[in-house]
Design goal:
The chain has 181 residues and is an alpha/beta fold. It has a domain of 103 residues: Dihydrofolate Reductase, subunit A (3-Layer(aba) Sandwich), CATH 3.40.430.10. 18% of the residues lie in helices and 30% in strands. The protein has four helices and ten strands. The strands form two sheets. The chain has an eight-stranded mixed beta sheet with strand order 5-4-3-6-1-7-10-9. The chain has a two-stranded antiparallel ribbon with strand order 2-8.
């Protein structure tokens, strides 16, 4: 099973404000015309999306569900409210990362998109992430929810490529070299 992170951070390494706000992210009006920063190409390779409850609740607050018909697994030990409109593709799974990967592999999924700070940290800590695509937004927000947290061991990475966009965004891709899975 391959698992990839595709995420944006502030230049100082935060994925959201302390209250979960992402108002500092550039909007569509800030993007180059037709530029999606490789998102569509990436999402087309993904079989399922795994995210934490907070990320799910944030995505649910958008005007429309951003993942279309892709299967989405929300990791939460509490009940998750899933509206009927997305109930066929969204499910809640109260399981640890290794168990999630096992269950989804049994269902035939081969490539997971892992999203959300705690979820990414959990998967990374267990050696279940193979690739990181991180887009740095040229803004300092000073405090917030960090992308990375404490790890049980060093995680070595190999730089694959970096792309720079006209509006100042810088996207770097890394391969995870350590595999404790």
């Amino acid at each position: 099973m391959k698992a990839t992170v595709y995420i944006a951070t502030s230049l100082d390494g935060f994925i959201a404000r302390e209250d979960g706000g992402i108002d500092w992210l550039p909007g569509e009006e800030d993007a180059q015309e037709g530029e999606d920063y490789g998102y569509q190409e990436f999402i087309d390779t993904v079989d399922a999306i795994v995210m934490g409850r907070n990320t799910y609740e944030l995505a649910s607050s958008f005007g429309s569900w951003p993942y279309g018909g892709k299967p989405v697994v929300v990791l939460s030990s509490r009940r998750v409210d899933i509206p009927d409109a997305i109930a066929e593709t969204v499910e809640s799974m109260p399981a640890e990362p290794r168990e999630v990967v096992r269950r989804l592999a049994e269902r035939g999924f081969g490539h997971l998109y892992v999203d959300g700070g705690k979820t990414i940290q959990g998967f990374l800590g267990e050696g279940l992430i193979q690739r990181l695509i991180i887009t740095r937004i040229p803004v300092l927000i000073g405090t917030g929810i960090p992308l990375f947290g404490p790890l049980p061991h060093d995680v070595r990475l190999r730089h694959v490529e970096t792309r720079q966009f006209e509006n100042g965004l810088v996207q770097s891709e890394y391969e995870v070299l350590d595999d404790v899975a």
